[in-house]
Amino acid sequence: FLDFPFQTGRIEPNYPKVCGHQGNVLDIKWNPFIENIIASCSEDTSVRIWEIPEGGLKRNMTEAVLELYGHSRRVGILEWHPTANNILLSAGYDYKVLIWNLEVGEPVKMIDCHTDVILCMSFNANGSLLATTCKDKRLRVVEPRSGRVLQEASCKNHRVNRVVFLGSTKRLLTTGVSRWNTRQIALWDQEDLSMPLIEEEIDGLSGLLFPFYDADTHMLYLAGKGDGNIRYYEIGSEKPYLSYLMEFRSPAPQKGLGVMPKHGLDVSACEVFRFYKLITLKGLIEPISMIVPRRSETYQEDIYPMTPGMEPALTPDEWLSGVNRDPILMSLKEGYKRNSKIVFKAPVREKKSVVVNGIDLLENVPPRTENELLRMFFRQQDEIRRLKDELSQKDIRIRQLQLELKNFRNIPKNN
């Protein structure tokens, strides 16, 4: 993947890339507390942590500061903890969610309650709860440290794809497909998933709906894969809960969307949300700003309340021991000034086994697909070649020692 934080316009074909994975990269996430740290996951079953140098990349980056192995199949989803530093969650096609403590570089917890591929993960505001959607058509609310399922919904009429916690409102929003194959959204009470609070059909298109929620303005944005438009709604605390506002229209279809963190917005222009739209047909990324039209040039406190900043509220050990804290808030009134002194220090690891819940995750894992079988075959071929080279070098060394020993024995005793 590419990293170009300080450039606009068309990039050169040989622009430096982060290219250390041995398979397709399936997800990347920026660290919420350290601006130059990225986590990525891939079909090669690994999760990797990258440190982008000051000023951006000057050459291709192939060496990650930390490589994490624990999944037996490809890894599709990553999620950083919203309040605890150096806590990262990864979901793989082995149906498991691993919780990594990056200070030690090992998985410390495993959530093993899913029976099929995990489609989406979302933390609540303080990171004490995790919501997941799964290919088994179930929506779950999980206590991540114990792996205990607190609530579970069987979504047969509303086949869930994506889920997002709506801030601290104790509500969830899911996007999915109805029994008539129309795109649909549903609002849920996190403490009772027996029935959704509301269901609303969007349209009859087939692309996935990606939900994005802004807890500061209570705005929900819906963007469909393959669509050119982005709908936005206001979330209320009383019925009908969901109020349609407007939509952004564009003839260029989007394959995916990224979001700028709140502290990166232009508050002087009343920008409340910014998307980065991936347009594959044109090979470009287009920024889309959501701006509240205001004539006044003074700071608009009603649209910029205190917002979660870049200082973690918890250490990894505190969160793993059961402590929960709300995010540390910051004001955008004076504009964003980088004052975070947190740096990432990669741990030194020598262990070759990964034991979680008494199970060695890397021991005798059988391949489940043809691609995995081929990758394992090529890895074994490389290992056999390495061992043969090592064996031949040792044979040469043995012959040298034998020759030296023979010469030593032939030396006259008087000498």
TrEMBL record:
Provide the alphabetized UniProt keywords: Coiled coil, Repeat, WD repeat
Note the coiled coil stretches, chain numbering: 384-411
**Would you identify the family this protein belongs to, as annotated?**
Belongs to the WD repeat coronin family.
Matching entries from SUPFAM superfamilies are given as:
WD40 repeat-like
Molecular function per GO: actin filament binding
The segments carrying the WD repeats are: 18-60, 68-110, 111-152
Which Pfam families does the record match to this protein?
A: WD40 (PF00400), WD40_4 (PF16300)
Native organism is Mystacornis crossleyi
Q: What is this protein called?
A: Coronin
